[in-house]
Design a protein that fits this description.
The chain is an alpha+beta fold and about 140 residues long. About 20% of the residues lie in helices and about 45% in strands. It has three helices and eight strands; from the N terminus they run E-H-E-E-E-E-H-E-E-H-E.
């Protein structure tokens, strides 16, 4: 099913309209942009889950990945990041501050959310961590 997102410059990430939320429930490959220590952007494909009630987006990752190292390098104030998905002319972006979480319960919850959105359980990975993004801004057009 295809949804239409109304054109908007900025949305409240905790109060998305139904079309925006529906688009984030569809199965789409996303991108995550993190800042490298030198300030340049690092952009990689990822799976993302969006939880507007909590104001959080989640990305599961390997602890040794560049994206995780970039978030950790940002320090305790968190890294300014963005996740985005595109489908033809439709697009949606979520921005916020990210931190790496290693708590097993948080990771298990993120894996379950990933499995629900993407229709498959990711392989077991003892080095899995969670990149948790506290959302500050949402944008989209469709």
């Amino acid at each position: 099913m295809t949804t239409t997102i109304q054109p908007r410059a900025a949305l409240d990430p905790r109060r998305p309209d139904e079309a925006y939320l529906s688009f984030w429930r569809e199965r789409h490959l996303c991108t995550l942009t993190t800042p490298r220590p030198d300030g340049s952007p690092h952009l990689v494909p990822v799976g993302v889950t969006y939880d507007p009630e909590a104001g959080i987006a989640r990305v599961i990752a390997n602890r040794s990945s560049r994206k995780v190292r970039n978030v950790v390098a940002a320090g305790p104030e968190g890294a300014r990041v963005a996740v985005c998905q595109v489908d033809g002319r439709r697009w949606a972006t979520l921005e916020g501050r990210a931190w790496v979480r290693t708590d097993a319960e948080l990771i298990a919850d993120a894996v379950a959310r990933y499995a629900e959105r993407y229709g498959r359980v990711p392989r077991q990975n003892p080095d899995r961590v969670l990149i948790e993004i506290a959302l500050e801004r949402a944008m989209g057009k469709g």
